[in-house]
Amino acid sequence: MGRITQKLQVPRVVATPAEVFINTRPDTIAVEEPLDIRVNGSLFRSITRTPGQDIELVHGLLLAEGLIKKATELSTARYCAGAVGPDNKNSYNVLDLDVLGAQPLPLLNSGPSCGVSPTPKPQTQWAITSITPNAETIVQLPEKLNELRKIFHKTKGVEAAGLADLDGELTLVREDIQAENAVNKITGHLLMERRIPQSPAILVVTEKVTYEILKKAAMAGIAGVITTESVSSMAIETAQEAGIFLAGFVQGNKFNLYSGEVAKN
């Protein structure tokens, strides 16, 4: 627990037309560890994540899956005392949660045999407040987030999510080996701080925006999502239906606008 990066000695290979050179050099890598999440005694999810901020992560995950709407509904969160590693110490990789009134969802969900399930819709408990951000603000946010990515600058191996206000100020940043986990840590933090539904804000992510990431933003009442990468068709459809601002390929002074409008001045 608490190991976010790990230092290794690795062979560095340089290939030239004449010869291949190999030498050993230090490398700092991002740690990825498993986490079993149990809800009311039953296994709910098995994921991998960057250790740290696990409590925020599970709050955000349970919010996105509709198991909780308030932080107080997660009454207890504790690491399983019996989950020990080779050193006979707690691995902190099994988390037991007591959720008031929750019936855990299956680990794997299956649709009807041979049928096509309809596009799911986030079951939010509030309307999204539509925003019209300034285009200049949007193009500046990825670089602002990049400056605050401490783990990434050490390892080049993690994704990030940041929450910004409409003036372009980043108020919260989280990093993880998985982009969805970073978003869960953002929304979980907001839930624990009783800041949901979130006042007009923009979620900035460094990975492709899928339906799952868009759903997490919607469940937290976040009005805008932007990424330096691509967005999926389901993410676009969901954003348009929910009234969420969505922009992709935010690079340099350009971006693709998939949902919502921008202020030109």
From TrEMBL:
It holds the Pfam family FdhD-NarQ. InterPro entries: Cytidine_deaminase-like, FdhD. Keywords: Cytoplasm, Molybdenum cofactor biosynthesis. One of its GO terms (biological process) is Mo-molybdopterin cofactor biosynthetic process. Gene3D superfamilies: 3.10.20.10, Cytidine Deaminase, domain 2 (3.40.140.10). One of its GO terms (molecular function) is sulfurtransferase activity. PANTHER family: FORMATE DEHYDROGENASE (PTHR30592), SULFUR CARRIER PROTEIN FDHD (PTHR30592:SF1). This is Formate dehydrogenase accessory protein. It comes from Corynebacterium callunae DSM 20147. The lineage of its organism: Bacteria, Bacillati, Actinomycetota, Actinomycetes, Mycobacteriales.
